[in-house]
Structure formats: structure tokens, C-alpha cells
Design a protein that fits this description.
Elements (H helix, E strand, L loop, with lengths): L1 H4 L2 H30 L7 H33 L2 H32 L3 H40 L10 H10 L4
Length: 178
């Protein structure tokens, strides 16, 4: 199963897909912000909080797009140091979404026991978490392959030799190592 995930071409595909998802999210946020900027002076306190939240979401989406471009450079140049910021940011995001979903589930059961309302509160968080795991796992496997490849190249890898030998040829054949 890790064979396709350790292929750099698949990693670039996953990253480009992630960039498109972030760009679509940023577009939706910009449209929401444009619809509400005409009324900034007349906004209530709650509307200003929502506006600030949307603006924060836009900044986070743009930051994630930049990190994804750095990830693509890391994949192409086979440099695990350039891949690490994306992995760290995505892992932190997954942990935050997990705890948010867990808290939403706990509060939904404390406040009401209606199944429909619980699903409306928890399912979006679970969907986001599953999507993030879908993006994270292939890139993390590729990161491990690139890390082992670089450590072998430098002669300091001391792990099991047979586990990554099949995938090293894909990393060597794909591009030169920088």
C-alpha cells in the first residue's frame, strides 16, 4: 500500500489537489467577505466576530496554499526539510479539528439528546478530519521515504534495509537529488 504513496508524482498530485481545495475555500470566504464589507459600519458585534473569523480563515487558507507550494518544491527536490512545515501544520490542524469535533459531540449530548442536532454539529468536523487524513497520510509516507532516501544517501541510515529498497528506485529515477 505504501508503494504508490512513496511515489513523488502521487505526492505532487495530492498536493495540487490540496491547493485546489484551499483555493476554493478561499474563494468562498472572499465572496462572503465581499457580501458583508458593504455593511461593516452597520454590523452588530456578532457579525463583526463572524467577519473576523472569515478573515482569519482566509489568511489560514492562503498560508496553507503557500505551505503546499513549499511542499511541492520539497517533493521535487527530494528535500524532507521543505516537506516538514506542511506536515507539521497539517498535523496541528488535524489535532485541532479532532478536539473541536470531540468538544462539539460532548456539548451536543449534554445540551440535547436529539440525534438530528447532534449529527449537524459533529458530521462536518468528522468530514473535515477524514479529508485531512486523506491528504496527510500519502504525504507523510512520501516524507518518510524521502527522509530514508536522504539518510541512505548521506550514509547515516541504520534502519531495516529491506523495507524501503523497493521504493528507492522510484525516488532515484524521478529526478536528480538536490
Amino acid at each position: 500500500m505504501t508503494g504508490i504513496f512513496s511515489n513523488p508524482k502521487f505526492g505532487v498530485f495530492v498536493t495540487i489537489t490540496h491547493i485546489f481545495v484551499c483555493a476554493i475555500l478561499a474563494t468562498c470566504v472572499v465572496r462572503s467577505l465581499n457580501a458583508s464589507t458593504d455593511k461593516v459600519k452597520d454590523m452588530s458585534k456578532e457579525d463583526k466576530k463572524i467577519f473576523a473569523l472569515l478573515l482569519t480563515l482566509l489568511v489560514m487558507s492562503l498560508l496553507k496554499i503557500i505551505l503546499s507550494f513549499v511542499l511541492i518544491v520539497g517533493i521535487v527536490k527530494k528535500n524532507h526539510h521543505l516537506m516538514a512545515p506542511w506536515i507539521a501544520a497539517t498535523f496541528i490542524s488535524m489535532v485541532a479539528v479532532f478536539f473541536y469535533t470531540l468538544v462539539a459531540l460532548a456539548f451536543s449530548f449534554v445540551n440535547t439528546l436529539k440525534l438530528r442536532q447532534n449529527a449537524e454539529r459533529v458530521l462536518p468536523g468528522m468530514g473535515i478530519l477524514i479529508t485531512q487524513i486523506g491528504f496527510f497520510y500519502p504525504i507523510f509516507v512520501l516524507y518518510q521515504s524521502v527522509l530514508v532516501f536522504r539518510l541512505k544517501l548521506e550514509g547515516i541510515y541504520e534502519g531495516p534495509q529491506e523495507s524501503f529498497n523497493d521504493h528507492d528506485s522510484e525516488l532515484v529515477d524521478s529526478n536528480e537529488v538536490y
